[in-house]
Design brief:
Elements (H helix, E strand, L loop, with lengths): L25 E2 L18 E2 L1 E3 L2 E3 L1 H15 L16 E4 L3 H24 L2 H14 L15 H14 L8 H13 L6 E2 L3 E2 H55 L1
Parallel strand pairs: 1-5, 2-5
Antiparallel strand pairs: 3-4, 6-7
Helix pairs in contact: 1-2, 4-5
């Protein structure tokens, strides 16, 4: 049915085959038999109706809610939105929006409470502690879970630079790569440097940067020299003008 609520496109009972979910859960008013809440139709679905912020009968609807959520999330999902329709309950089509909204709210609360129980368990806390220790480990890369460089390796690099590099020498990109290759990595392996990638690419990139910086420095030096030449010329011109004014004043007073 075209007006099936959004929720019924997100949850499916896993025991029902895809072909059997083609029939909407909400039956149109003109074809719905006279069923009282709690009774089942020919497909075995329990008739429910809105009852404030819940459904009536609440017991059957709550059982269906738990079963839908529990059987759906048997493995890791990237999103909470999963397949087709609810096939264990039915309702009048005029209740589509109310039933769907209530189901989304209650299913979200139920799933959140189950996840909270997992997060509060000792087993999950032990896993979190192990992951934190791995991220902060100063040992080899086997315990490190993020990035190509371990915390210990980076600390060793900075310690070596602080102890061996003269403070008057600027740590350029080329020098940094050279120190990393020779002192931290111990050379290259098949043209690749641990934590950097291809040694040739790194060296070529450093060469391009250095060349561009050299050109920029040369241009700035020329501009500075030209500015200094103009300043000296203006100063000399000003001195000549002042001298001429002084001579004219002397002639007037003579």
């Amino acid at each position: 049915m075209a007006d099936t609520p959004l929720l019924t496109q997100r949850f499916v009972h896993p025991d029902v085959s895809p072909s059997s979910t083609a029939t909407p859960s909400a039956t149109p008013d003109d074809t719905m038999p006279a069923l009282a809440p709690g009774q089942k139709d020919k497909l075995g679905r329990v008739m429910i109706e809105p009852d404030g912020s819940s459904w009536h009968p609440a017991k059957d609807a709550a059982r269906t809610l738990k079963d839908c959520v529990r059987r759906l999330y048997t493995q890791a999902y990237h999103t909470l939105g999963v397949r087709s329709q609810i096939t264990m309950c039915t309702w009048e089509s005029r209740y589509n929006l109310v039933i769907g909204t209530t189901f989304e709210r209650k299913a979200s609360a139920k799933l959140s409470s189950w996840l909270k129980k997992v997060r509060d368990s000792d087993k999950f806390k032990a896993i979190l502690d192990q992951v934190k220790k791995a991220r902060g480990s100063l040992k080899g890369g086997s315990l490190h879970t993020r990035g190509a460089k371990t915390v210990g390796t980076i600390n060793n690099f900075h310690q070596y630079v602080a102890e061996n590099l003269d403070s008057s020498v600027q740590l350029t990109a080329k020098l940094s790569t050279q120190i990393w290759k020779e002192k931290v990595v111990g050379g290259t392996y098949k043209g690749r440097v641990y934590g950097i990638g291809s040694s040739r690419q790194a060296e070529a990139l450093d060469g391009v940067k250095i060349s561009a910086m050299s050109d920029q420095i040369a241009k700035l030096t020329m501009a500075l020299a030209e500015s200094e030449r103009r300043r000296v010329a203006e100063q000399e011109s000003m001195s000549e003008t002042v001298q001429q004014i002084k001579e004219q004043e002397k002639q007037r007073t003579a």
